[in-house]
Design goal:
The structure is a homodimer of 502-residue chains. By secondary structure, chain A is mainly alpha-helical. Chain A is built from 17 helices and two strands. The longest helix of chain A has 35 residues. The radius of gyration of chain A is 25 Å and the shape is globular. The interface between A and B is large, with 40 and 40 residues.
């Protein structure tokens, strides 16, 4: 049994590896030799992969509904509700983006090829079916045709990964839209251009602005699908030790604490004000420098507070004499890896900013703010990771113990519930931890919201763009920003757990 | 205890991550904006890191000799003799390379800064001390000052990683030498150039040719040090379950088989002939096309034979009814990860070649040969990985069982020795496996030798260089080739194990 499992994992992994390599070579060829390999070639390859994945996803859906014994177990820890919710949110945004692309292609019908109409339509179908199947089946432990399932999952994962690589390196859409916006400006000043212009001007502007705004959700969506497909792939053929056992119920969420939520709400309100100001300004041609100053000043105020709160929380752990849960726990290991991995993105951007700012000898106040922002961002990520990872290893021991007798389990759960309902028994350390966790949750929500909904001063302030060149900085930001958004989402999840278990 | 271990690993890992990010940002800044961040800045950063690592390595050496209780256990599986041998070989080559650099800087003394003399000298000191410490201590399980040791090891690892990143992206040395060689040609044809020329012409030529030839060993050395330091880092604070237990003795090496060794020797002799022809030709200004044809034809002949042999071996595993050893085994997991990871390099090169060849519409016979070569290379890597990984999971079960009583262990080892000494008991499957393993060992040795000692037709044939551009292809080849050499070395190690255990 284990032999076939290992062999199947190896084989499907190799399949994905080869597909990813082939696609990457295509994309690199396009980037460095646009004459020999065109964007259309890359799109053709991706459309083939998408159609294959689509067929497989439909086949999977049909088998699991036909065969009642195909899925015996469900992994209770896979696909929590916030992951599935973000999947649907990002999926809808990606579909909107592609609808805008179709609209853009239709309004330029006289000068664009029909292929440019076909590709977004295939993408819409692929995203819809994938979102639906993942929503429904992300907890499955497939027992039927395991090798075929592994290969299919890996093919879909490779397709998503290639879509992500293309999205973070291919800036042609941005170039095209910018060129066209410039043409509009020229036309209004009287110049006649030979550039392809669209039929309906207002609709075009909506499509183009919308595409630019929805673009980050596309990369976000691909990343999320990759992690969910990976979890499904790991679960193929898995027999859970105790399928009848209920998932460990987390204690109910009850608000406690005063100072933490208040400070967090303050940060939330301030963040929303800056966000609204920035979005209004972003409609103009250029964003005034004082808005950048405002944005960075907000970060420079919030980040040290978050760092100090995380460090204080980590110090409380050291004071506690609670036993550590050091048992092997695959879900927690994946959580820790995702948290650390996602932090690589924003930390990478921060270091690149740092070098760019230092190398250009900052004199302007804005450059100094950016310098402070980058340094504080790195420190904040390190401190928050220490706090969350420490908290995840601090879970109550009764949960880690395997249930020998179900009566004992019930008893211990009842005890825990009673424990959590009696807040009078909370000691000062637990109160401090709860306050800190709530403050960090609110701060992470506002720091998640701002980049997720289109505030990207890293790209628009121009300092790093001039230093590294447009394409390099585009790739760095497009690699790091979606990981940063993912990091904030994931840390909110982790912090909620820390809050509940404190 | 586990709490401090986890915390120490997390903290030292974060330290290394930050150092690597800072260094990468410096290197990227240099690549994309050479005016603001110069190569000297990067060298200064690296020299600082090297001096810090050097001091720490000396401190480690002193503590371990002073404190007799600092290292209680030795990990018997870490640092086998072939790894330590390659460490010394590559280390000496790196030192030679830096001696040549010093010589080059001295002979250009009038037009180069003194810093260019200082950096290779620091590098020589760093490499010597690091090689010495790793040779002596790579099996250590350090018990004393574990957190400091972890941080020191991670600092050294980060330094090696940054040296590797710089080596694979920085082509300035190659540019400089090529420009100077061109100047020599111009001068001999009568033109006077303002370019910096060296004092002693013959010595210069030796230094420059030598630097170009020894360059790949440098990258190889950094990679090897990284893996050894990582193993040492994992072993810090580890208590081995049975320190008194002798390491599992592998059966003695005895040659068996006729057809495999003969075919392998044939490939070896043919490979050496082509290698010598190529090296003689490489002294001329341009390598004639027929030598490339010869080289690729050799590969196109050998690779299918290796693929078929690996697949036949994998088929024999399926026929066997032997129990699989599926116990957790950290050394084997690391072996498998390294084998798969190292295969990424040559497979990446092959896919990039493939796309370049197909996109330029191959008509010439040489292009078609390159196409076949790339495809076969991918297939060979996949098949060989399947064969070796299957073999590693097939170890005799008595080895996997933990020793309850030492008398039982001795008995089982005696039994095993008796088993291996009586070749009459080998059945046909074992004979086939031994033949295949020997053939693959010899083939891998020849495929290791050719790129390791300076035959790089991927770079010199010009097809991919023209397609992707000089710098991109330089980075891809410099990333993939050392990994490919590492892969061949590592598979020889794995195949020897498969041969012995068959």
């Amino acid at each position: 049994h284990t032999k076939t499992k290992k062999a199947g994992q190896l084989f499907s992994g190799l399949l994905a590896l080869n597909v990813v390599f082939l696609g990457s070579a295509f994309i690199c060829g396009m980037l460095f030799n646009g004459m020999a390999v065109t964007l259309t070639d890359v799109w053709l390859l991706l459309a083939t992969l998408k159609v294959l994945s689509l067929l497989w996803l439909l086949y999977y859906e049909i088998t699991t509904t036909r065969k009642s014994r195909a899925v015996l177990h469900q992994d209770p820890q896979a696909g929590p509700i916030w992951v599935r919710g973000s999947l649907v949110l990002f999926g809808s945004c990606t579909i909107c983006l592609n609808v805008f692309r179709v609209g853009n292609a239709v309004s330029h019908a006289d000068c664009k090829s029909h292929l440019e109409l076909a590709f977004p339509i295939i993408q819409i179908m692929f995203v819809s079916v994938q979102t639906w199947v993942l929503w429904k089946h992300c907890k499955d432990c497939m027992q039927f045709q395991t090798n075929l399932t592994r290969c299919g999952l890996m093919l879909t994962l490779a397709t998503d990964l290639l879509l992500w690589i293309l999205a973070i390196t291919n800036d042609s859409m941005h170039h095209e839209i910018r060129a066209e916006l410039d043409t509009h400006l020229e036309k209004s000043s009287g110049n006649l251009s030979s550039f392809c212009v669209c039929i309906n001007n207002t609709a075009c502007l909506v499509f183009q602005k919308g595409s630019l705004m929805l673009y980050p959700f596309n990369t976000e969506y691909c990343l999320l699908c990759c992690t969910m497909l990976f979890v499904m792939w790991k679960n193929v053929g898995r027999h859970l030790a105790a399928p009848a056992r209920p998932p460990p119920s987390t204690p109910p969420f009850r608000l406690s604490g005063v100072l933490g939520p208040l400070l967090g709400l303050l940060a939330l309100v301030a963040g929303i004000c800056i966000f609204v100001l920035f979005q209004i300004q972003a409609n103009g041609p250029d964003i005034a420098r004082r808005y950048f100053t405002l944005y960075y000043a907000f970060y420079v105020a919030v980040l040290p507070a978050m760092t100090l709160a995380s460090l204080a929380g980590a110090a409380v752990y050291l004071l506690e004499e609670r036993e550590l849960d050091v048992l092997k726990n695959p879900t927690r290991s994946l959580d820790v890896v995702l948290l650390m991995g996602a932090a690589l993105g924003p930390m990478g951007i921060a270091y690149f900013s740092l070098v760019a700012t230092v190398a250009t000898h900052p004199r302007r106040p804005l450059s100094r703010l950016i310098l402070a922002y980058s340094l504080l961002l790195v420190l904040q990520h390190i401190a928050q990771n220490l706090f969350i990872i420490g908290g995840l290893h601090r879970r109550l021991l009764c949960e880690a113990e395997p249930a020998r007798r179900s009566s004992l389990l019930d008893l211990s759960q009842d005890l825990r519930r009673a424990y959590f309902h009696s807040y009078s028994r909370l000691n000062w350390k637990q109160i401090v931890l709860k306050e800190i966790a709530l403050f960090l949750i609110l701060c992470n929500i506002v720091l998640w919201m701002m980049p997720a909904f289109g505030v990207h001063p890293e790209f628009e302030n121009g300092l790093e763009k001039d230093f590294y060149g447009y394409r390099t900085w585009f790739t760095i930001v497009n690699f790091g920003l979606p990981l940063g958004v993912f990091y904030r989402m994931h840390s909110v999840g982790g912090l909620v757990e820390v809050y509940l278990e404190a």
